[in-house]
Amino acid sequence: MREIERSAASVEEAVEAALDELGASEQEVVIEVLQEPRGGFLGLGAQDAQVRVRLRSEPSEAAPDELLEDQAEAVMDFLEGLFDAMGLPAEVESTFEDGTMYVDVWGAESEEGMGLLIGRHGQTLESLHDLVRGVVQRQTGERCRVIVDVEDYRKRRRSQVVSRAQSAARRVKKTGKPEALEPMSAFERKIVHDAVAEVGGVETASEGQDPDRRVVIRRRGGAVSRETAV
Known about the structure:
The chain has helices at residues 11-22, 65-86, 112-118, 123-140, 153-175, 186-197, 226-229; strands at residues 3-8, 29-35, 49-55, 90-97, 100-107, 146-150, 179-180, 202-207, 214-219. The protein has 230 residues and is of the alpha+beta class. The protein folds into three domains: 1-59; 65-151, CATH 3.30.300.20; 152-230, CATH 3.30.1370.50. The chain has a three-stranded antiparallel beta sheet with strand order 1-3-2, with helices on one face. Strands 4-5-6 form a three-stranded mixed beta sheet, with helices on both faces.
């Protein structure tokens, strides 16, 4: 059974690096968070996140629905308390869609406050999800597998990212010319890795440092077309 450990500034980046090396999607592995990242004081004592990732030996190792439901309940309780403290009227519910457990946040009165929760290019939503992930880790001792969404922003964005990534992958497969996508969050880069894997004949790798880290798509095996070589 193949198993590797990786460290990075965040859990998501460490997982992404491990998945890149294993050539697997998140659904094909078991992930153990060995250490959450720590910021330290004035840069002193800072520690990277560390994860252990191994390929599943049997399909039955997939996380049970009960675990996802427990995590969703913990996330909903936390968000409801947070929004009450903020005085932000919002409704929170869980949904299971395409193998992913979401905790959806909806504006109870208007979408203005929800726009603030999403932020520019989803940056505030990403920060909210980071906060939730830490809460789940502390309460359950397990890596958070629940995704927080606001007004279906992530679901709409997922559809856009999948379409763009697979279109680029088909071009790369045809021409042999590598393509780099725009900078994305770790969440979206994982969507790209999984989406491109469905095309076949191409491979992905993440390059650069956040917030400019992006996925590069190449023809598998490094074959280069005449057009690329010119």
